[in-house]
């Protein structure tokens, strides 16, 4: 018996990669138009990510290179009187410190004669590594702990939340400083401790989201048919918490970047790698006469944190059903 095919019915097919790309561009355009501040934040974030990825291409100079110029007043064996008049007379070269921004050095040089532009460029790498890494640790850890706490409730929830209360009782920056002082001040340790210190906040966010989902009808139906707790959490609860995860992740990046800059400013950040916080601290002593190092490093911190915060706020408005259209 032959099958009758209706010619007016178009069979369903999977979209091609080109069609997916076109749909993504349309969605991006709607986001940029509907959320101009969020779109501006996205542009800032993309620019800093590109700068970090292309740091070795656009750096112009090595960030640790010390620039020197020949000393025109050099004298091999200066007398004490000559040294008193000119302390640099016995040195064949002079360090090019505190140069003004110009063609040779776009952002000038610091007190050690290093190019500030190159340091700012490479500092973006550390900031993004710390921000992204710490946010991943905090979100993933907070997801596991918060979901278990809210799903099982009872004594499990009570014990977990008391531990969370203990973490939140200690100021965030103080907790991170304690962690970094008892371990090696490497990039990995800073990322780890920032993420651990942020667990309390993300755990509370995830817990509140799971508490709203766990009593939903589809979760109760899954329990009735005999689905395991792990299956319910992964297949039913987790998809309904994705919006909260994305928002916590995007906003958390800016917070962790600012935290890394703070501990680096205090001298407890990663060592042996350019850091915006260290640059702000190093330029503080010459802020009145040579403010360029502090201005450019501080400006970079402000721009990237503002970009992630604007993007996170816009994503919250788009993904949270209660705020759509607000």
List keywords for this structure.
326 residues, two-stranded antiparallel sheet, 14 helices, 2 strands
Description:
Helix 2 (36-53) crosses helix 14 and helix 5 packs parallel to helix 14. The radius of gyration is 27 Å and the shape is elongated. 65% of the residues lie in helices and 2% in strands. The protein has 326 residues and is an all-alpha fold. It has helices spanning 17-34, 36-53, 55-58, 80-85, 116-152, 154-169, 172-181, 187-197, 199-213, 217-224, 229-237, 242-265, 276-283, 292-319; strands at 68-70, 93-95. A two-stranded antiparallel sheet has the order 1-2.
Uncertain segments are: none
Order of strands in the sheet with the most strands?
1-2
Radius of gyration: 27 Å
Based on CA inertia axes, which overall geometry fits? elongated
Oligomer: single chain
Structural class of the secondary elements? mainly alpha
Q: How far is the N terminus from the C terminus? A: 57 Å
Largest sheet report: 2 strands, antiparallel
Estimate the helix proportion, in percent. 55-70%
What are the secondary-structure elements, in order, as H or E? HHHEHEHHHHHHHHHH
Q: Helical segment tally? A: 14
Query: How much strand?
Result: under 5%
Mean of residue pLDDT? Answer: 84
Task: Give the tally of β-strands.
Answer: 2
